[in-house]
Amino acid sequence: MAEVSAQRWKAFIADEPSCSVLQTAEWAEVKEKFGWTARCVITDAAAALILFRRLPRWTFGATVAYIPRGPILRGGNEYQLKLFWEEVHALCRREKAIFLRVEPDIEERADEAVPLLSSMADFRAAFATVQPPRTILLSVNLPEQDWLSRMNQKTRYNTNYSMRPEQGLTLTLPDDVGVFYPLFAETGARDAFGVHSREYYQTVYDIFRKERKAFNLVATAGGEPIAALMLFIQGRRGYYLYGASANAERRRMPNHFLQYHAMRICAEHGCVDYDLWGIPDEDPAVLEAQFRERADGLWGVYRFKRGYGGRIARMLGSFDKVYSPLLYRLAALIDEKRRERA
């Protein structure tokens, strides 16, 4: 078996509890509604959802290919993994990809890392990353008291404070993003990060919600929404992909309130871990030495996330397989110029 249908992929993922949310049939459906084409490959050694994006007309139909948080390993040896990559490369060439970017959902020190990297000898380090390679994982298959004792003193205090009745916070779970989106846009303007359209977030929520894999958590005070969090459940892990808060009423600690409720939902759905999704890609010693001073990039959210006392994990990183060297160099140059302007 090599390339398979979307239906076959969905059935396959149902039996893969360790699969990332970005390798699901739901994520493929989302991306296909916003300009990507999704293809799926399954072999005895590994499987992958591969996304293709068409490039401008002057490239004569060329694409870029991307495996987000994959492939999914199935226990194959290095030789079998090389056969898997041959299937992937053949598909990418049929789709006129100038390069394939792969960001494995495997930690650097995991046993699976060695055979996977050995099978990727013809890949190079990518000129950019799409997903943040470093994150914080919170174990949620523990008593709630252990969650609190794991937190640092300030985060524990703020969490308990947010749950007090006198703070007046109420949890709602609306089925549309009409409340979430304005808060997210306000947060993006405050913290200087890009925001998709309201249609995008509504589409993401709707597709995952119909499979009972998404939760739109909103904290209100006096009937007014002041913070929101979109939680995703996939297999044994919960994912904090999107969060937002108003500039006003932050003294009520609504973000702590929502995170605690998100952890409860993860536990209720049998998750082992809650992925806080994205911190600066620096060694733990550097993170601890600089988090009080830095505010650029993901440093601001790291200050918040570190308080929960989770485990810092780094994935293998981002790798490119080049099929068209000339166009690849051009793509790298365009990306470099874009980042200089940012």
What is the succession of H and E elements?
EHHEEEEHEHEEHHEHHEEEHEHHEEH
Shape descriptor reads: globular
CATH topology of the largest domain: Aminopeptidase
Mean pLDDT across all amino acids: 94
Name of the top-level CATH class of the largest domain: Alpha Beta
**CATH homolog superfamily of the largest domain:** Gcn5-related N-acetyltransferase (GNAT)
Please identify, by name, the CATH architecture of the largest domain.
3-Layer(aba) Sandwich
Total number of β-strand segments? 15
Overall structural class, as computed from helix and strand content, comes to alpha+beta
Radius of gyration: 21 Å
Description of the structure:
- With 342 residues, the protein is α+β, with helices and mostly antiparallel strands.
- The protein folds into two domains: 3-131 and 316-341, Aminopeptidase (3-Layer(aba) Sandwich), CATH 3.40.630.30; 134-314, Aminopeptidase (3-Layer(aba) Sandwich), CATH 3.40.630.
- It is 38% helix and 25% strand.
- It has twelve helices and 15 strands.
- Strands 1, 2, 3, 4, 5, 6, 7 and 15 form an eight-stranded mixed beta sheet that branches. A seven-stranded mixed beta sheet has the order 9-10-11-12-13-8-14, sandwiched between helices.
- A hairpin with a 3-residue loop joins strand 2 (36-42) and strand 3 (46-54).
- Helix 2 packs antiparallel against helix 8 (198-209).
- The mean pLDDT is 94.
